Amino acid sequence: MTTEFTPYLAALGGTLIGVSAVVLMALFGRIAGISGIAASLLPGAASQSGDGERGWRIAFLAGMIAAPMGLLALTGEMPQIAVPASSLALLGGGVLVGIGVTLGSGCTSGHGVCGMARLSMRSITATLTFMATTAATVFVTRHLIGG
Prior knowledge:
By secondary structure, the chain is mainly α. 71% of the residues lie in helices and 0% in strands. It starts with 6 loop residues before the first helix and ends with a helix.
């Protein structure tokens, strides 16, 4: 699978992610970790985050869903995403990512974007682990088992 590098769109996307993380920290004192935001909205988790936290969490996730819709409104096209994997492989990958997020106490957005920006050694270690695991997974699937 090849991908086309688009430096301006990548810079814009990275800037928007960074700005959203800074705004969330400035306004609510919270980390923009997507797995934690989503998990706190699951049944039984509300007692951990409190009812006053639900509004911004729902708005944050709604913004992630609304962004492609905004692109559709502006350009007339949805982002093109091609995933060269079977549904079973995607399901298995999702389960493994869920396990990793739980074991790592966070995801790439929380650790990689927010934690590393705060120079958190725990987040730096987690992000290095994520990246090493990703590199190993790509190598094994593309070169050893031919995926």
